[in-house]
TrEMBL record:
Acts on leucine, isoleucine and valine. Its EC number is 2.6.1.21, 2.6.1.42. Belongs to the class-IV pyridoxal-phosphate-dependent aminotransferase family. The keyword Ion transport does not apply. Pathway: Amino-acid biosynthesis; L-leucine biosynthesis; L-leucine from 3-methyl-2-oxobutanoate: step 4/4; Amino-acid biosynthesis; L-isoleucine biosynthesis; L-isoleucine from 2-oxobutanoate: step 4/4; Amino-acid biosynthesis; L-valine biosynthesis; L-valine from pyruvate: step 4/4. This is D-alanine aminotransferase. It comes from the Bacteria. InterPro entries: Aminotrans_IV, Aminotransferase-like, BCAT-like_C, BCAT-like_N, Class-IV_PLP-Dep_Aminotrnsfr, D_amino_transT. Signal peptide: none annotated. SUPFAM superfamilies: D-aminoacid aminotransferase-like PLP-dependent enzymes. PANTHER family: AMINO-ACID AMINOTRANSFERASE, AMINODEOXYCHORISMATE LYASE. Homodimer. NCBIfam families: D_amino_aminoT, PRK06680.1.
Length: 283
């Protein structure tokens, strides 16, 4: 059964789907994207993902490629045409096609691609043993709140992590604070039992999972702080974990060459994970 992609108004077999060589996404990474999880054939936290897409576009002086309602219908159709039950929908919007020139061209139509991918449930080993992260310097630009398709530093960070057998990279600022993972948000539970994740300003992408989890933590009465935390604090932490639309809440049991506490997934992490999965299943 061929995978089907939506490309600028057409549903095409994945293998035939393509974009123009002068698409500004291809030439300048002039575009943004969203990854929306799908559970039981339904988009999860769809409104928040579309809000973030709209915000990323407007920060780059771009319009939504179609109305929100039309975008929802196309996503539903891509899910249906791919018989997707659990996985994610990938949406990418670029400024469009124009002769190569740095300044924003006038009067061109944004280009849009939507694909879908089925994923396997997270392995039990990951949940029982947790994952390792490797720290790397954060060499990215200063507008990480925009979900830009310009991801080369993130790819380099992830590659460095994988080469050392780690699952994810944690990026660290010159001042010693952790920003986030290459495609995930970073969390710790401090020695004093406080849940900490970095403030959502221009330094990180405000994850949709991050937003949902903060609500879940508040409902569960878990004390939390949104603030930068240092790598030293993370080394000393009682627990650590990462969040994203595709990894949900994943325990971290190793940071560089150090075990996090006793090297087992933490109880706050696992409690929050369960509450978060319950919440998205209910919705
Ligand atoms: C840099 C970065 N931070 C955080 C996240 C997590 O965001 P979300 O929870 O919306 O998937 C992502 C997801 O792609 C990301 O690329």
């Amino acid at each position: 059964m061929p995978r089907i992609a939506y490309v600028n108004g057409q549903y095409l077999p994945h293998s035939d789907a393509s974009v123009h060589i002068e698409d500004r996404g291809y030439q300048f990474a002039d575009g943004v994207y969203e990854v929306v999880p799908v559970m039981s054939g339904k988009l999860v936290d769809e409104a928040r993902h579309l809000d973030r897409l709209e915000r990323s576009l407007s920060e780059l002086q771009m319009d939504m490629p179609m109305s929100r309602r039309a975008l929802q219908l196309v996503c539903d159709s891509v899910i249906e045409r791919n018989y997707l039950t659990n996985g994610f929908v990938y949406m990418q919007v670029t400024r469009g096609v124009a002769p190569r020139d740095h300044k924003f061209p006038k009067g061109i139509k944004p280009a849009i691609v939507i694909t879908a991918k089925q994923t396997k449930p997270q392995s039990t080993a990951v949940l029982e043993d947790g994952v390792a992260v490797k720290t790397v310097p954060d060499i990215r630009w200063r507008r990480r709140d925009i979900k830009s398709i310009s991801l080369l530093p993130n790819c380099m960070a992830k590659q460095a992590a994988v080469e050392e057998g780690a699952f994810e990279a944690w990026m660290v600022e010159e001042d010693g604070t952790v920003t986030e993972g290459s495609s995930t948000n970073a969390w710790i539970v401090t020695k004093d039992g406080i849940l900490v994740t970095r403030t959502a300003d221009h330094d990180i992408l405000n994850g949709i999972t991050r937003m949902g989890l903060l609500e879940v933590a508040a409902e569960a009465g878990v004390q939390f702080e949104e603030r930068p935390f240092t790598l030293e604090e993370a080394y000393e932490a009682r627990e650590a974990f990462l969040t994203s639309s595709t990894n949900h809440v994943t325990p971290i049991t190793r940071i560089d060459d150090r075990s996090v506490a006793n090297g087992k997934p933490g109880s706050v992490t696992m409690k929050l994970r369960e509450a978060y999965l319950d919440r998205i299943a209910r919705e």
